[in-house]
Amino acid sequence: MKRLTAALLLLALAYGAYVVLGLPPPAEVRALATANPRTTALMRQRAEEALRAGRPARRVQAWVPLGRVSRHLIRAVLASEDQKFFGHDGVDWEAIQKSVDEDRKKGRFARGGSTITQQLAKNLFFTTHKTLTRKLRELVAARWMEQELSKRRILELYLNVIEWGDGVYGAEAAARRWYGKSAADVGEEEAAGLAAMIPNPRRINPSVSPARFARARRRVLWLMANAGSARGQADRLGAEPEPEPEEEIEEEDEEVGPPPEPDRLAEPAPMPEATPTPELLDAPETTEPASPSPGTGSETTGENRL
Q1: pLDDT above 90 covers what percent of the chain?
Q2: Rounded distance, CA 168 to CA 104, Å?
Q3: Euclidean distance between CA atoms 250 and 256, whole angstroms
Q4: Is-contact 80 196, C-beta < 8 A?
Q5: What end-to-end distance do the CA atoms of the chain give, in Å?
Q6: Any bridge partners for residue 60, and if so which?
Q7: Residue 279 burial class via C-beta count within 10 angstroms: exposed 0-12, middle 13-18, buried 19 and up
Q8: pLDDT in tens, 103-138
Q9: Cα 8–13–14 angle (5° rounding)?
Q10: Is the pLDDT of residue 290 over 50?
Q11: Full-model pTM
Q12: Is residue 162 over pLDDT 70?
């Protein structure tokens, strides 16, 4: 019995050492307070996937400060991904408990419980591979970031590095790719559309599945309308989009044309030149929630979230 206990203890110590050895250097985490990362672990993962598939990788990214991101987009992201962002220390233990219970019930990784800080840690330092070891490292790295970085800086990093489509990284590139405008000018519905893509942007987008994208956007709009404190926090951050231009009133005797067609996605506008770097392959499909549920408790477990 003593030998078994000793063996188990040694195994636990060895595994703990293995987890620690895979963590980013603390100096690298501290440097994020003032330096923007040139690349991320996810970008490198996409590059390797593209290389194995024998196709060129893409990377379109344009860094913008938080003050040049629409308040609507910040509110949409907080409402759908992490409504407790300003109240936790990097980890939402209640959401993790719900995630564990759901995963145990279904016998697989079925529910995401990651905060924005955890998602950022995964994007920066790890991969999308779903393992217990990665989740443990992600928890530790998230706590480190909360100690070294302000909430504002964490949110700014997150909005500039997460994946928003095939080779599209960050809010500025995403806003231009999907709506033909800058991140500062994104309106409420457009912001909901961008936030809806975050769980699995290469599956939930208007090009791959318009119907699925529309359902996800409706869910985010519902969350935005019911976000409560998350809305108040978001309204103190980011840029205020320009108001829509007023339509001219037509004279009574003027011929009035047919009513305008419903809003459609704008044609993508060209991005400023960016240095292409290796990326991307298809990610596994995720399950979309049957009904709306607030951030970190969402049922989807796509690339950015789990």
Answers
A1: 61
A2: 34
A3: 8
A4: yes
A5: 39
A6: 168
A7: buried
A8: 777 666 655 678 999 999 999 999 998 899 999 999
A9: 95
A10: no
A11: 0.76
A12: yes
Residue 254: CB atoms within 10 Å:
8
Q: Cα dihedral angle (36, 41, 46, 47), rounded to 10 degrees?
A: 80
The tokens describing 108, both together, are 């697989």
The CATH code belonging to domain 38-234 is 1.10.3810.10
Nearest Cα residue to 25 out of 181, 179, 141: 141
Task: Extract the tokens encoding 83.
Answer: 């409504």
Integer Cα distance of 279 and 303 in angstroms: 14
**Is the distance from CB of 302 to CB of 204 less than 8 angstroms?**
yes
Whole-angstrom Cα distance, residue 154 to residue 157? 5
Q: Which residue has the tokens 């233990």?
A: 93
- Report whether 223 contacts 295 (CB < 8 A): yes
Query: Where exactly are the structural domains of the chain?
Result: 38-234
For the residues of the chain, what is the DSSP string, one character each?
Answer: -HHHHHHHHHHHHHHHHHHHHTSPPHHHHHHTTT---S--HHHHHHHHHHHHHTS----EE----GGGSBHHHHHHHHHHH-TTGGGSSS--HHHHHHHHHHHHHHTS-------HHHHHHHHHHS-S---HHHHHHHHHHHHHHHHHS-HHHHHHHHHHHSB-STTEESHHHHHHHHHSS-GGG--HHHHHHHHHHTTSTTTSSTTT-HHHHHHHHHHHHHHHHT-THHHHHHTTSSB-PPPPPPPPPPPTTSPP-PPPPPP-PPPPPPPPP--------PPPP-PPPSS---TTS-S---TTT-
Could you tell me the two tokens for 202? 């290469």
Pull the structure tokens for residue 281: 């392959």
Work out the number of other CB atoms within 10 angstroms of the CB of residue 283: 17
Residue 253 burial (CB < 10 Å; 0-12/13-18/19+)?
Answer: exposed
Q: Could you report the per-residue pLDDT of 40-63, keeping only the tens digit for each?
A: 999 999 999 999 999 999 999 999
Which two structure tokens, joined as six digits, stand for 210?
């318009």
